[in-house]
Amino acid sequence: MGRDYERRLVLHGIIIVFLGLAAGFPFVTAVQSGTAENVRAWRMAHMEGVLNGLLLLAIAGVGSRLALDARKQAIAFWGLIITGYGNIIASVVGAATENRGLLPEGPAANWVVFILFTAGVVMVIVSLALVAYGARPGGSTPSTKVTVEVSDSGSRKSAPAATPRPEVDTSAAVTSVTTSSGASVDDDDDDDDDDDGGGMPLSRAQRRRAKKKGR
């Protein structure tokens, strides 16, 4: 049973319980000064409200465990509402007018009591049968299907292209170095043949220092 039905059953169940409790006040008055029939009628009205309200609250507490489709849920819910209000109203009207509503006859008040009690009896049988059907072994609670649609609006932004890095030719050799004084120092392949006079080749830094001293 859906959460909406459960909440509404709780609300109406509490209202019917309050109506039954309110019927307890004339019941006390009848006990003090009424006839035996009057006491019986108001006791019944008091108990009808309390018991029918508790029935709605009890079914609301297990509603989510019942395997019923939407149509059966609606029938069970409205059947319980008719049962609860029909029984409490019929019992109060019957106690107030001293009509039991056992047969479809007599004054209008008796007809009202008879119709409401009959509707309550029929609908409580239907509702409880549906509740029992929903609680049957092997029944599965109908799941709610959620469909999510994702549309591509075409406004997807493309990532900016990476800026190509400039290529550096690392194979180019440095042939000369210009100093701050404007003098140019050549770095020719012939320098590789220089040595320090002892047959050991000079390093590049040593050749530069030697050339600077020669100036």
Key features of this structure:
single chain, 215 residues, mainly alpha, Four Helix Bundle (Hemerythrin (Met), subunit A), 2 domains, two-stranded antiparallel ribbon, 57% helix
Short description:
The chain is an all-alpha fold and 215 residues long. It has helices spanning 3-22, 24-33, 36-62, 70-97, 108-134, 204-214, and strands at 176-178, 184-186. It has two domains: 3-134, Four Helix Bundle (Hemerythrin (Met), subunit A) (Up-down Bundle), CATH 1.20.120; 176-214, no CATH class.
What report would you give on this structure?
- This protein is mainly α and 215 residues long.
- Helix content is 57%, strand content 3%.
- A two-stranded antiparallel ribbon has the order 1-2.
- β1 (176-178) and β2 (184-186) form a beta hairpin.
- α1 (3-22) packs antiparallel against α3 (36-62), α2 runs antiparallel to α3 and α4 packs antiparallel against α5 (108-134).
- 26% of the residues are buried.
Q: Secondary-structure blueprint of this entry?
A:
Elements: H1 3-22, H2 24-33, H3 36-62, H4 70-97, H5 108-134, E1 176-178, E2 184-186, H6 204-214
Helix pairs in contact: 1-3, 1-4, 2-3, 3-4, 4-5
